[in-house]
Amino acid sequence: MREHLVVPADLGAGMADRIRSSRRLIIIGAALLAAAAVALALGVIPPVRSDTFPEAAPGSAATAFLVQAAIAVLAAIALAFVAASAVGRPRSSIAILHVIGALVFLLGIVLVGPALTFWVHGPALHGAILFMFLSAAAEFTTTGLVIAPTRSRAACLGRAGISGSSSR
Fold first, then answer.
1. How far, in Å, CA of 71 to CA of 66, rounded?
2. Distance from the CA of 108 to the CA of which of 43, 44, 70, 152 falls in 20 to 30 A?
């Protein structure tokens, strides 16, 4: 038995066009995530490594930002794969985009906390703080770009009566 998605004839090009236009937003989100990772790697990690504030832990902070950048790159790659395969599997794409959107939103929140904390470490980290806020803004924007198209896709699937049930 092979399961497949039953697509009504009246759905046709309308949904495919919506998915294609949503694909652009997803790719823009992936590019923003990649830019955020580069900003962390080049604009945040070097100044944090040289932090001389009395209670600073530059080694562990730099490692944490490196992990954050790596997760952003992996999420960007995942978004690129979802964008490439979204037309064939709309329901699974919506679920994957929700998970990635939630992860990216959490990444942005995790950046805002240290940015506020590093403000008291002196002017040497003010540039890094700017990059942290810019990276967090890119991650929040990516969340919006990734989640917003899923609402229109889910509505389109619902109107068309598409279900995940199998048929022969």
1. 9
2. 152
Please name which of 138, 132, 142 lies closest in space to residue 45, comparing C-alpha atoms: 132
Using alpha carbons only, give the angle 93, 98, 102 rounded to the nearest 5 degrees.
150
Please state the pTM of the whole predicted model: 0.77
User: Residues for the chain: how many in total?
Assistant: 168
Nearest alpha-carbon partner for 82 in 145, 161, 3, 157: 145
The CA-atom distances, in angstroms, between 127 and each of 48, 77, 115 are: 10, 27, 10
Which of 119, 42, 44, 107 shows the shortest CA–CA distance to 76? 107
Contact 156, 17 (CB under 8 A): no
Rounded Cα–Cα distance for residues 127 and 132 (Å): 9
**Looking up tokens 């001389």, which residue turns up?**
52
Mean pLDDT of 130-141: 96
Taking a C-beta distance cutoff of 8 angstroms, is the pair 31, 145 a contact? no
Extended beta strands in the chain, E state: none
Residues with Cβ within 8 Å of 162's Cβ and at least 6 positions away in sequence, in order, are 5, 6, 7, 8, 11, 90, 91
- pLDDT class of 15 with cuts at 50, 70, 90: low
* Contact call for residues 61 and 126 (beta carbons, < 8 A): no
Summarize pLDDT for 141-166 with one digit per residue, the tens: 999 999 887 776 555 555 545 444 44
